[in-house]
Structure to design on (568 residues):
């Protein structure tokens, strides 16, 4: 095969991975001498390199894929979809993360439950932190006694101890035997107004329940009524209001009256 | 003319990454130069200001030396401007192609995927691809190297790319290709990437030390060090990880035989790369350079290294 023909064939496989991945009943002479499997892996490698700017946003996700020896396979599977999206125009970091998340869901579907929980959890954790870091504060319209978040906030539920796994991954001392702990975990993420840093901490069910009812409409009294209706009768309104007063003192919840 | 001849000292630099500014501020004198990609400067020209106290070496991935689609005139003009701006002593470029002529689209076509495609639109991989290793491509690369060297008025170093698969129609190894190219002209100078060399050898069944010794090492002006690792049955270049021991062993063997002008640590794919590892590996490279200088008689008349 002459050089230009070989280069054109390989360039098309790499720039349009869907062409490479398409099933063919009739292998034509043009494919003779080409290792299509390795070309697909190379397309994955190129796609991986094109995601390098996301490494600062998703360091633990990338490190975990590398430790699993799965980076190349993952990005090889992702290459056709990424090339198709990229052909439509430049992609924002947020869009790239969304697409990666979708691909990861497919990629882990056949993996053991432990790995599914870990990979999905680590990506969700890092993407949540990124989203809060890059999202502007919601305008505060001051709706009377209604409880409102200040800055940004989010909750995620995990099936694995994501905090522990990410701490080990960040420190580059991750050990699958000790740092993958399957358990229910709720993390509360919060970013103070006009600040870039996102803090997160583990919350229990009741804390999650109370804070998840903060919606800019309910007052502390309304929340107390709502949780009582859900069967938490022991939570008297005074305790609920005390809880939100404390949250207000920490600066991430506000209301016109209850938290004053 | 830059060359290896006369070189008695080797500068050590780092490839630009967003952490470089901090690195240079916290460890002044650590790096003798910063290697920066032309494509990075086009996208974010401000980065040149971040490191202006340190000499630059310019690297490039846009010339597509082995391809049949030359870079756009605008790209070449931008490159000339950055060569002048950075005062780079040479330009590093890959033994590779990036674009391929779309006139040949019909050779690679599949009916399901050609609808709506412009027949003459070139394929653009957006990444350097090791070319077919054949006499025809050798002629093309030799001609391109000569032409760009004349046009830019400075040496264009040829970097060995990593080989991950066999390009159809190849008739020789990459090492034979480079040896033949150097045999044709005394003006051919090399940028030897030792992680690429190791990966190529792993993927083609060659011995990396034999391959190293087979090359005309006196033509090596610059050396690249980076990570490399195997995954999915293939050895890959990896600038996210530190160089493995075998890469430093290759550097030690190379330094025992020749004195390149520069060694560049390329840990530039992760802006969060640990600075302490960069510092440690710069020190390790300097240690190997010093040890080699101590144990080897100068072959040529010493001249000063000038990087700016």
């Amino acid at each position: 095969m002459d050089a230009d023909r070989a280069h054109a064939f390989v360039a098309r496989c790499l720039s349009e991975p869907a062409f490479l991945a398409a099933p063919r009943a009739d292998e034509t002479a043009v494919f003779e001498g080409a290792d299509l499997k390795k070309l697909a892996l190379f397309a994955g490698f190129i796609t991986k390199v094109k995601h390098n700017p996301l490494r600062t946003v998703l360091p633990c996700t990338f490190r975990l894929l590398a430790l699993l020896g799965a980076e190349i396979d993952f990005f090889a599977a992702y290459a056709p979809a990424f090339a198709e999206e990229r052909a439509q125009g430049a992609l924002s970091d947020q869009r790239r993360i969304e697409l990666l998340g979708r691909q990861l869901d497919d990629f882990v579907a056949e993996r053991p439950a432990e790995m599914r929980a870990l990979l999905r959890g680590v990506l969700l954790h890092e993407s949540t932190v990124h989203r809060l870091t890059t999202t502007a504060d919601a305008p505060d319209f001051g709706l009377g006694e209604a409880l409102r978040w200040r800055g940004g906030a989010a909750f995620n539920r995990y099936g694995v101890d994501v905090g522990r796994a990410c701490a080990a991954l960040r420190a580059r001392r991750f050990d699958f035997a000790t740092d993958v702990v399957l358990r229910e975990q709720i993390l509360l993420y919060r970013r103070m107004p006009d600040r870039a840093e996102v803090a997160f901490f583990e919350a229990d069910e009741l804390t999650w329940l109370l804070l998840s009812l903060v919606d800019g409409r309910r007052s502390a009294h309304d929340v107390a009524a709502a949780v009582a209706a859900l069967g938490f009768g022991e939570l008297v309104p005074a305790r609920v209001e005390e809880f939100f007063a404390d949250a207000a003192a920490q600066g991430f919840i506000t209301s016109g009256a209850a938290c004053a | 003319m830059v060359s290896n001849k006369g070189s008695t000292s080797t500068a050590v630099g780092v490839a630009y990454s967003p952490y470089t500014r901090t690195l240079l501020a916290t460890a002044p004198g650590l790096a003798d130069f910063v290697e920066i990609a032309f494509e990075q400067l086009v996208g974010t020209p401000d980065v040149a200001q971040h490191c202006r106290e340190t000499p630059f070496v310019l690297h490039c991935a846009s010339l597509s030396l082995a391809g049949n689609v030359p870079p756009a005139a605008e790209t070449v003009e931008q490159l000339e401007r950055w060569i002048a701006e950075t005062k780079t002593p040479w330009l590093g470029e890959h033994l590779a192609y990036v674009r391929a002529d779309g006139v040949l689209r019909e050779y690679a076509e599949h009916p399901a995927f050609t609808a709506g495609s412009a027949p003459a639109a070139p394929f653009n991989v957006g990444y350097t691809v090791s070319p077919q290793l054949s006499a025809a491509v050798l002629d093309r690369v030799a001609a391109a190297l000569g032409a760009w060297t004349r046009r830019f008025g400075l040496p264009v170093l040829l970097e060995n790319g990593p080989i991950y698969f066999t390009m159809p129609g190849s008739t020789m190894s990459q090492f034979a290709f480079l040896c033949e190219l150097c045999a044709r002209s005394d003006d051919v100078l090399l940028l030897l990437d030792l992680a690429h060399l190791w990966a190529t050898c792993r993927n083609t069944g060659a011995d990396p030390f034999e391959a190293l010794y087979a090359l005309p090492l006196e033509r090596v002006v610059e050396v690249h060090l980076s990570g490399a690792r195997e995954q999915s049955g293939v050895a890959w270049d990896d600038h996210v990880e530190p160089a493995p021991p075998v890469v430093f062993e290759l550097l030690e063997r190379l330094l025992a035989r020749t004195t390149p002008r520069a060694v560049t640590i390329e840990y530039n794919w992760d802006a969060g790369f640990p600075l302490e590892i960069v510092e440690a590996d710069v020190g390790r490279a300097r240690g190997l350079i010093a040890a080699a200088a101590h144990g080897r008689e100068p072959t040529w008349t010493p001249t000063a290294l000038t990087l700016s």
Notes: Chain A has a mean pLDDT of 87. The radius of gyration of chain A is 24 Å.
